[in-house]
Amino acid sequence: MSADPSGDASGDAIDYGRFDRGHGDALNYWTLDPTLRFEARRVYPDGEFEWARERLEAFGDAVAGPIAENAEEIDRRGIDLATYDRDGEVVNEVRYPAELTETERLTYERFGLTHDPFHAPPGRSEPVSLTHPLTMQALLSYNDAGFVCPASMTVGAALVLEKFDDGANAETFRRLTSRDHDEHVEGAMFLTEKQGGSDVGANEVRAEPREDGTYELHGEKWFCSNVDAEGALALARTPDAEDGTEGLSLFVVPHTDEDGEPNDLVVRRLKDKLGTIAVPTGEIVFEGATARLVGEEERGFRYMTEMLNYERLTNATGAVGIMGRALLEAKIHAANREAFGETIQEFPLMKRDLVELTVDYEAAAAFAFEAAKHYVARETDGDDSAAYRLMRLLVPVAKYRTARMAVETSSYAMEVLGGNGYVRGFTTERLYRDAQVLPIWEGTSNVLSLDVLRVLDKEAAHEALLPYVRDLLDVEHPFVESVAGTVEGRFLELQEALMTLATEDEEYAQYHAKRLADLLFDVVAAAVLVSEAQWAIDEDGDGRKALVADSFVRSRFGDDEAYGVTSGDRSGMERFDAIARYARVDPESLVEAAPADD
Q1: Helix or strand holding residue 209 (H, E)
Q2: Is residue 519 domain-resident?
Q3: Contact (Cβ atoms closer than 8 angstroms) between residue 248 and residue 238
Q4: Which domain holds residue 230?
Q5: What mean pLDDT value characterizes the chain?
Q6: Which residues does 346 contact at the CB level (< 8 Å), separation at least 6?
């Protein structure tokens, strides 16, 4: 029997052979993903999961049905821009397919993704935590990571206005968080300029004050996703502001004025992108565009980091969604495709591949939602708390590693499908195109790795990290305890690495920054999986997660003499039903299994 981590009754291991494709009325992405359900149940705060479960199931049904069909059509048709009308007047008209409007209406109006974190939804007396939209965005990424971008930026922009605005942008906040689709507007984050790129401190867009209290913007933004957003936030420099990020201020720059006429800006073109077709990304030239200041001048970058942390988390949970869908497509194909008289999922090498892909997925989900847990806890505990320091450390690592893992998983899913996997209409090629932007959005791997160094140096994040990992490894089941022992050995190496980089010169630290981030991910992911394994045994009487934790530790920390060929290991075959098909494991049977350090 399969343990259902949502707490519902369950049947046998999942039979992926009963599906012929990875979307449609027969599927529900929530009920078909025990990993995502487990993480949501674990990290939702204050009993919120009981309210959320029914709604997530309904959303999982919608995403697998109409939203999935819409995503295929949106990707095929694309989005168009008309910068000028026939008379040469600027109109900046972005033209969307009707399918995207339907997806927006379902997501914003019916399911309240951008409303419920700020206003009490039906069935609750207060707003939901940000865990809820992050989980919804993971489900959305099963189909359309492009649309997740504006959905996430709408939540992010509303977060900034709720926290820092003095009321000047109250109407924008109301519309960003409205559940009425006809009133609702989307958010955006216009940071990048051609000459600066990741060096935001080099930004040159100017903000000139007007007598009526508004500002006018002059200059160019080079990479603007959701280019026609009415709730766009942009960084600009006011007169006499100091250089660098310290001199930047934050502004709301609507796409149109109160009469619906174009603001004084030109959308020069839309980028011809590899993927994420559902979000229009373009270049904007501000020619005196009306803008309203958020908060105080020269505090813009600090304000924007609030949104940036949320977007990086979205990137991570979005990566989880792409991995989940890619795995689903691969497992359905492997359960149906026959070769040499058997379905290909019965072949030992395919069993090994699907187990390893599932284990990576579990690790990515565990790490991403652990980062989300501390992000939400920091909202309550404050910026001086351990939760804040853990959030600041885990979020960039989560974004960096899950992005790369999504690219690798979607690439291999294409391979499982063979030639069809490389062809439009079979989903995996679209997942791969969408996944490829994840290492770029919200900071590249190098930028994120250097951010990890900064957090360790400036905020002493290691002081929160070390006791946190020790607590995760405090387990009691003999099998899980043995796995934890292996992790503890690598945890000691992590502590040595932290000490080394703290005492070496800056060049040396930067040279090894990415490897440190890799080590952080592997140790923390392993520790979280170990803790989850004990929790699943205690709460559900299921030892499956213990096999997942052990398999992850084997893959990261095991002895790889002769690359394991001479080891006698057959665990991928033996654990196939338990790990890849989510079959229940009796915890008592674990005492007969050999953990990673044996």
Answers
A1: strand 206-209
A2: yes
A3: no
A4: 187-301
A5: 94
A6: none
In terms of pLDDT, which residue wins out, 188 or 6? 188
Q: Copy the structure tokens of residue 80.
A: 């168009």
Name the nearest CA neighbour of 207 among 167, 234, 246. Answer: 234
- What is the CATH number for 272? 2.40.110.20
Contacting residues for 112 by C-beta, under 8 A, at least 6 apart: 121, 179
Out of 301, 331, 346, pick the residue that ends a domain.
301
The token pair that represents 281 in the structure block: 């990304």
Please state, in angstroms and rounded to a whole number, the distance separating the CA atoms of residues 24 and 424.
17
Q: Does residue 173 carry a pLDDT above 60? A: yes
pTM: predicted TM-score of the whole model, two decimal places: 0.95
CB atoms under 10 Å from CB of 584, counted, come to 20
Distance of CA 492 to the CA centre of its chain: 29
Query: Over 360-376, what HEC string results?
Result: HHHHHHHHHHHHHHHHH
Is 178 in contact with 170 (CB distance < 8 Å)? no
In a domain, 56, yes or no: no
Domain count, the chain: 2
Is residue 238 helix, strand or coil? coil
Within 10 angstroms of residue 54's Cβ, the number of other Cβ atoms is 10
Residue 340: burial class (beta carbons within 10 Å; 0-12, 13-18, 19+) = exposed
Could you report the per-residue pLDDT of 432-468, keeping only the tens digit for each?
999 999 999 999 999 999 999 999 999 999 999 999 9
Confidence band for 355, pLDDT divided at 50, 70 and 90 = very high
Q: What Å distances lie between residue 179 and 61, 111, 114, 257, 584, CA to CA?
A: 20, 9, 8, 22, 40
Domain boundary among 269, 301, 333: 301
Q: Which residue matches tokens 């997530």?
A: 56
* Residue 534 included in any domain: yes
**Number of other CB atoms surrounding residue 208 within 10 Å:** 14
Task: For residue 287, give both structure tokens.
Answer: 């020619």
Q: For residue 560, what pLDDT is reported?
A: 82
Query: CA-CA distance, 477 to 521, in Å (whole number)?
Result: 24
| Residues 6 or more apart whose Cβ sits within 8 Å of residue 182 | none
Query: What integer is the mean pLDDT of 65-83?
Result: 96
User: What span, in angstroms and rounded, lies between the C-alpha atoms of 476 and 227?
Assistant: 53
Block residue for tokens 């949502």: 6
Residue 591 pLDDT > 90 = no
Mean pLDDT of all residues in 492-512: 96
573: left (phi over 0), alpha (psi -120 to 50) or beta: alpha
**CA 544 to centroid of chain Cα atoms:** 25
- Please state, in angstroms and rounded to a whole number, the distance separating the CA atoms of residues 463 and 236: 36
Does some domain include residue 562? yes
CB atoms within 10 A of CB 498: 18
Query: In angstroms, rounded to a whole number, what is the distance separating the alpha carbons of residues 538 and 531?
Result: 11
User: Three-state SS for 572?
Assistant: helix
Distance CA(121)–CA(108), nearest Å, equals 12
Task: Please check the confidence at residue 2 and state whether its pLDDT lies above 50.
Answer: no
The string of DSSP codes covering 244-268 is: SGGGEEEEEE-SB-TTSPBPSEEEE
